[in-house]
Design brief:
The protein is α+β, with helices and mostly antiparallel strands. The protein contains 21 helices and 18 strands.
Length: 670
C-alpha cells in the first residue's frame, strides 16, 4: 500500500490527517520576485519571515528562529497552510499556519520544531497533534540540476516515531497524502450551517413517524385478534358427564346441585332460593378440576364458555377488562350457561397499589363488577379453578361472588384403584394387579395415573408386545417416581458394590424393624440422579402416623449409611446418603417442633422456619443419633444376611419383596 514517494506527499498526508479536524487548506506560492512579510501565529507566539528580492539573502526574525537554518539563505518558495477555506492573501493569514521554507541549492539538515506558545503562568502549552507529528522526523533537502525534489522513505519516517500509536497515525497520513497528491481522493466539503441544524431534526421526525406507524399496525392487529377469542362449546359438543369423572365423589355431589339449577331454574325461583353465582374448584394440578367443569355443562346440557386466566393478560391497556365484558355479555345472551375460568389466580390475584403498574387492577375490578351485575337466578354460573387459593383477592371470595368452594383432593387408595381400572379398560392389558398398582402410587393424581398407563402402552407398542403387562406398568411408575433408566450410565464394579451394600442396608433395617413400611422392591439400576432405590408399599391408605412408625422410617433411612460405615470403614463412606439424611432430619424436626413428640421440649409447637433454641436443636440431633445407633445394631446382627442380599443384587440387579423374603428366610433355615 505504501510507496517510496517524495516528502511532499508525506507532508501533505500528515497535514491532511490534521485537516480532518481543522479543515486545513494547502496553498503554494512560487516565482515571486518580491516576497511580502508573512506573519504566522500559533497561540501567543508569532513567526515573522522577511524576504527580499529573489536570490538575495533573507533575514529570519521570531522567537522560534532556532527551528530554521542559521545565517544568510536564499529561498525559492514559501508554502503556507491555511485554516480558512479561502486564501485571502499573505497579509491576512490566520491562526495555526505553518511556514515551510526550501533553500535554493545545497544540502541542509533542518530539524523541524514547532512550539505552541505559553499559558498565563509562562509554562509551555501542550503540543497539538500536528506539532507532535512534525516533530517525529528530520528533513533532508536535495537539489538536482533540473528540478528540486524532496526525498524521504516511508521506513525512515517510521523509525523516527516514538510510539506505535504515532507510527500508525503516520502510516495513515502517508497513505492519505499520497492519494490526495495523485488526485485519487478529494477533500469532502463540510456541510453548511443550515444542514447541520436541519439534519438532526429531520432524522428525529423520520424515526418518530416509523414508531407511530409500527404502534398503529400492532394495535390494530391486537384489537382485531381480541374479538371472539373466548370459545363457546355447544351442548352437542360436550360429551363428558359425571360418569367419566372417576374419584372426587364429594366434589361431584356438590356440583350436582349446580346441574339441577341449570336444568330447572324456575323451581328455585318459586321457592325463593338463590344458588351461588360462582363456584371455586380448589385442588392440586391434575386432580380433574377442568374435567369436573366440563361434566357440569355436559350433565346440564347448556352452553359452555371456557377461557384461561392468562388469556386476559394483554399488552395494551384495557384489553383484559374489555374481554371480561365481552365474555359476560355473550354468556347472558346464551343463558342458562356455564362460564369456566381456568387458572383464575392469574386474573383474580390480589390487587396492587404499585405506581409502576397503575392499570394492573383493571381486569379484576371488571370481573368483580360483572359478577355483581347479574342476578343469581339469571341462569349464568361461573366456575373457577385454581391451585393457589391464597393468591386470590379476598373480594373475589366474599358471598355473592365465589361463595362456594369445592375442594378436589388427590385421590385416595379406593379412588386410585377406580381410576387405574378405568384407564386400563381403554387399552389392551392382561394380568394386571390393580390392587398393587393402587397401593404403590400414593400421591399420584388422576393425570399421573393416566400418564402411567399411557407410558406403559407406548413401551409395549415399541417392544411389539401383544398387550400391557405388570412389568410395563411397574417400569412406567418408576419412571414417573425416579426418572428414566440411565442405561448409558454404567457404574464400575466398585461403585456397584457400594450401591448394593447401601440399598441392602435399607432393606435389612426395614425387614427387621417393627412398624416399618412393607418392602416393595430394591434395585441397583441407575434412574434419574440415583444409582439405586429401595421402594416401599403401604398396605392401606394412611391418614395418621404413629411415633413408632416415624422412628422406624428414620431407622430405615439411616440403614444405608450404617452399612457403608460398617463394611468399608468410617473413612470410606460416600455422598449417597445425602437424600436419606435430609428426609430423616425433616422427620426429626417435625417431631420436635410440630408434633410434640419430644420429652425434653414438651408439648408445644415451634415455627419450623424460625431459628430454634439450643435445646430444640440438641433434641433433633439426639433423635438422629439414636436412630443411627439402632440401624448400626441391626446391620451388625444381620451382617451375613446383608452379604447374601448384596450377592443377589449384583447378580439380578432388581429384587422384589418376595425375592428378598426368600433370601432372608433361606439364611434363617441354614
Amino acid at each position: 500500500m505504501f510507496r517510496n514517494v517524495g516528502l511532499q506527499h508525506h507532508r501533505h498526508g500528515i497535514l491532511r490527517a490534521y485537516h480532518r479536524s481543522h479543515c486545513l487548506k494547502r496553498v503554494k506560492t512560487e516565482k515571486s520576485l518580491k516576497w511580502p512579510t508573512v506573519r504566522c501565529k500559533q497561540s501567543i507566539q508569532s513567526y515573522q519571515i522577511s524576504t527580499g528580492e529573489y536570490g538575495k539573502s533573507t533575514e529570519v526574525v521570531g522567537d522560534d528562529s532556532r527551528s530554521l537554518p542559521k545565517g544568510p539563505s536564499t529561498w525559492k518558495a514559501v508554502e503556507v497552510f491555511l485554516s480558512s477555506p479561502k486564501y485571502l492573501g499573505p497579509s491576512r493569514i490566520g491562526n495555526r499556519q505553518i511556514p515551510f521554507l526550501l533553500p535554493l541549492e545545497g544540502k541542509a539538515q533542518v530539524k523541524r520544531h514547532f512550539s505552541t506558545g505559553t499559558d498565563e503562568s509562562g509554562q509551555p502549552k501542550k503540543t497539538g497533534l500536528i506539532t507532535r507529528i512534525l516533530n517525529l522526523f528530520k528533513l533532508q533537502v536535495f537539489k538536482s540540476k533540473t528540478d528540486q525534489k524532496l526525498k524521504k522513505g516511508k521506513n525512515d519516517l517510521l523509525e523516527d516515531a516514538s510510539t506505535a500509536e504515532e507510527a500508525e497515525k503516520l502510516k495513515v497520513a502517508f497513505t492519505d497524502g499520497y492519494l490526495a497528491a495523485t488526485k485519487q481522493i478529494r477533500d469532502p466539503k463540510p456541510p453548511s450551517k443550515f444542514m447541520r441544524i436541519v439534519t438532526p431534526i429531520m432524522s428525529l421526525f423520520v424515526v418518530s413517524g416509523m414508531l407511530i406507524c409500527l404502534v398503529i399496525l400492532v394495535s390494530g392487529t391486537f384489537f382485531r385478534s381480541q374479538i371472539g377469542k373466548y370459545t363457546e362449546i355447544n351442548q352437542e359438543e360436550i360429551h363428558v358427564t359425571f360418569q367419566d369423572v372417576k374419584g372426587a365423589q364429594e366434589a361431584k355431589q356438590e356440583l350436582k346441585e349446580i346441574v339441577a339449577f341449570l336444568k330447572n331454574p324456575e323451581r328455585f325461583s318459586v321457592l325463593g332460593g338463590k344458588l351461588p353465582k360462582g363456584v371455586l374448584l380448589v385442588g392440586p394440578p391434575g386432580t380433574g378440576k377442568t374435567l369436573l367443569a366440563r361434566a357440569v355443562a355436559g350433565e346440564a346440557k347448556v352452553p359452555f364458555f371456557h377461557v384461561a386466566g392468562p388469556e386476559f393478560d394483554e399488552v395494551l391497556v384495557g384489553q383484559g377488562a374489555r374481554r371480561v365484558r365481552d365474555l359476560f355479555k355473550a354468556a347472558k345472551e346464551a343463558a342458562p350457561c356455564v362460564i369456566f375460568i381456568d387458572e383464575i389466580d392469574s386474573v383474580g390475584s390480589k390487587r396492587t397499589n404499585s405506581m409502576l403498574h397503575p392499570y394492573a387492577n383493571q381486569t379484576i375490578n371488571q370481573l368483580l363488577s360483572e359478577m355483581d351485575g347479574f342476578h343469581q337466578n339469571e341462569g349464568v354460573v361461573v366456575l373457577g379453578a385454581t391451585n393457589r387459593r391464597n393468591d386470590l383477592d379476598k373480594a373475589l371470595l366474599r358471598p355473592g361472588r365465589f361463595d362456594v368452594e369445592v375442594v378436589v383432593p388427590i385421590p385416595d387408595y379406593a379412588e386410585r384403584r377406580e381410576i387405574i381400572q378405568y384407564y386400563i379398560g381403554k387399552v389392551l392389558a392382561k394380568d394386571v394387579d390393580v390392587e398393587m398398582l393402587a397401593r404403590g402410587t400414593v400421591g399420584f393424581t388422576g393425570a399421573d395415573l393416566e400418564n402411567m398407563v399411557n407410558q406403559a402402552a407406548l413401551r409395549a407398542a415399541i417392544d411389539g408386545a401383544d398387550g400391557i403387562t405388570m412389568p410395563y406398568l411397574e417400569n412406567a411408575k418408576d419412571k414417573l417416581l425416579m426418572g428414566p433408566e440411565r442405561k448409558s450410565r454404567i457404574p464400575d464394579d466398585e461403585t456397584n458394590l457400594i450401591t448394593a451394600y447401601h440399598e441392602g442396608g435399607h432393606t435389612i433395617v426395614c425387614f427387621y424393624t417393627p412398624d416399618s413400611k412393607p418392602l416393595h422392591k430394591v434395585t441397583i439400576l441407575p434412574r434419574g440422579r440415583s444409582l439405586g432405590h429401595t421402594s416401599f408399599l403401604p398396605e392401606k391408605e394412611q391418614y395418621l402416623v404413629k411415633k413408632s412408625q416415624l422412628l422406624a422410617t428414620m431407622d430405615t433411612l439411616m440403614g444405608g449409611r450404617a452399612a457403608e460405615e460398617l463394611i468399608f470403614g468410617p473413612d470410606k463412606i460416600t455422598t449417597g446418603a445425602s437424600n436419606d439424611l435430609k428426609e430423616a432430619t425433616s422427620i426429626a424436626t417435625h417431631m420436635v417442633k410440630e408434633w410434640g413428640m419430644s420429652e425434653k421440649v414438651g408439648l408445644r409447637t415451634v415455627d419450623v422456619n424460625q431459628r430454634s433454641s439450643e435445646a430444640v436443636e440438641a433434641e433433633i440431633s439426639w433423635l438422629l443419633q439414636e436412630s443411627y445407633k439402632r440401624a448400626r445394631t441391626i446391620i451388625k446382627n444381620y451382617s451375613r444376611e446383608l452379604k447374601l442380599l448384596v450377592e443377589a443384587l449384583l447378580k439380578y440387579e432388581t429384587l422384589d419383596a418376595d425375592d428378598v423374603k426368600a433370601i432372608l428366610m433361606e439364611r434363617r433355615k441354614n
